[in-house]
User: Which sequence fits this backbone?
């Protein structure tokens, strides 16, 4: 993909959305072009026919994440009744709707925690010249150093991904850091890869 | 990798463990060789120096999973205190240790549910000539048709994996099925891909 052409198309989209251009997009788009790291959005990819539509969704996502006011948001899934059957049969729990509600509130809190963590780190790193890839604009990368020498993925816990999800980093130079160890409960701030 | 050589090495390992040979391993090993689908075990892979050690772990895993008696097993992780902070700050919960315990019991039940589902399906499919890839012996595959024409991955819910984990199936012909839809709560048994 031609970077200059893409950049021009992105500028056009930003203008059409009546936004000021955000210079951090230069870093993000450059990395995505160089590393083939554009995410799919729905079924769209930047190599498809309809680059303007892709870029409009992409840019909207980026600005949207930067402006989003975080809130506690209930999980959007339905409880699985098979979980209740197991809780009753194996450990004799009876107050199953309360248990389920607590589980769902905790999952919602974990989701929010991931978002808060990302924003907290963004607040710390961006004044040092890093770029937050807001809105999942770079596949498997949350932060880029301004000179593009380092790509960083941040997770809350060491067990936030399984072997399949970590496989996507194979053969890349993406650094990974997690906040907390799921076994010991120890946090990992001292080893944060940016000083 | 040479299939005949591998098969002989596997036979030797099974003998050294004083086990009878399980013919389903022929199917599993054939698929792994043909599709490069051997999982890593710790840091070991079958291409490494130490094939006998790899195979010993691999075969032990396979027989172990087949013989394992499932039980309700508490999750092995430590609660993250940041979750408590969020539950208190955003939705004013106070009985945080109870909430956390319910969350952990529910996660343990979900883990067990995945194992029970896999075994239930194995019980249904194996009499029809399918092979259960017990003990994660095939990367991203849970069941193989005996003629190796179909590989199947089974999940409990449609949201049991993220985009990174599903990426590992790209370019493969692995079929995926999930039991329950996380949004609607509807189960998917009518569309199970084996009749």
Assistant:
């Amino acid at each position: 993909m031609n970077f200059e052409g893409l950049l021009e198309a992105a500028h056009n989209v930003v203008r059409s959305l009546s936004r000021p251009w955000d210079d951090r997009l230069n870093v993000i788009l450059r990395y995505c072009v160089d590393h083939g790291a554009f995410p799919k959005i729905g079924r769209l990819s930047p190599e498809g026919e309809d680059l303007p539509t892709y870029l409009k969704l992409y840019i909207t996502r980026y600005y949207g994440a930067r402006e989003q006011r975080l809130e506690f948001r209930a999980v959007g899934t339905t409880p699985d009744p098979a979980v209740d059957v197991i809780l009753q049969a194996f450990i004799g729990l009876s107050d199953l709707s309360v248990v389920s509600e607590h589980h769902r509130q905790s999952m919602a809190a974990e989701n929010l925690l991931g978002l808060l963590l990302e924003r907290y780190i963004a607040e710390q790193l961006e004044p040092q010249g890093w770029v937050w890839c807001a809105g999942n604009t770079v596949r498997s990368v949350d932060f880029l150093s301004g000179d593009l020498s380092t790509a960083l993925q941040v997770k809350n816990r060491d067990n936030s991904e399984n072997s399949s999800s970590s496989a996507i980093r194979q053969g890349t130079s993406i650094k990974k850091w997690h906040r907390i160890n799921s076994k010991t409960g120890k946090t990992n701030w001292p080893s944060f890869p940016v000083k």
Q: What stands out?
A: Chain B is about 45% helix and 10% strand. Residues 162 and 168 of chain B are 11 Å apart (CA to CA).
